[in-house]
Amino acid sequence: MERKFECHRQLIGGVLSPRTDAIQKDYDSFVSTSKDGCYVETLQLAKKPKSEQQVRAIFGLAIDTIVTTFDDNGWDTSYLLKLDIPTGNPVTKGLMKEYLYSVCAIQDEEGNLVTISRMNTVQAAQFFDAIRNFAVTQWGIYIPEPNPNWRKE
Q1: 29 burial type by CB count under 10 A (0-12 exposed, 13-18 middle, 19+ buried)
Q2: What is the C-alpha to C-alpha distance for residues 79 and 75, in angstroms, rounded to an integer?
Q3: Interior angle at CA 90, CA 89 and CA 95, nearest 5
Q4: Alpha-carbon gap, residue 153 to 50, rounded angstroms
Q5: Which of 71, 84, 109, 111 is the most exposed place for a label (fewest CB within 10 A)?
Q6: Rounded Cα gap, residues 123 and 151, in angstroms
């Protein structure tokens, strides 16, 4: 597992704010417990994270699109599970959400499943892309981007 150190500091007028005592302590601890080798220090502009409501709305629209298409086509869970005999059980939003968590899983550094409420913006974009790709390749369901700039905002 790759270890990394991350901290947030302000850049104002071309001057980077000094590390606080707490950040310096964490930095020193990271350095003193790391293996010898070549390390990269990167500065990047921190993007404002999506609110949980925004992320849920984006995925809610994707799940609504899929479930509506299933309903419109008369597909039940047999279509989802690739069974030859209809089950008569409808595909609900809750079932679809759990199914997508399984087939389009996003994991954290420890290998644990990350749910929408714990995803960062990068993970949310990966999850949305995985859902879109899965839906179009497996079911022929196209899910449009909710807003072409949502990944950057």
Answers
A1: exposed
A2: 6
A3: 105
A4: 8
A5: 84
A6: 11
In whole angstroms, give the CA distance from residue 38 to residue 114: 30
Q: Given the structure tokens 């690739």, which residue do they identify?
A: 82
pTM of the model: 0.61
Which alpha helices (DSSP H) does the chain contain, by range?
A: 21-32, 52-73, 77-80, 93-103, 121-134
Tally of residues, the chain:
153
- The model's pLDDT over 115-139, given as tens digits with 9 standing for 90+, comes to 887 787 778 888 888 999 999 999 9
Cα(95)–Cα(141) distance, integer angstroms: 17
Q: Hey, where are the domains in the chain?
A: 1-46, 52-139
Instruction: State pLDDT tens for residues 44-75.
Output: 776 655 566 666 677 888 899 999 999 999 99
Q: How many helices (H) and strands (E) does the chain have?
A: 5, 2
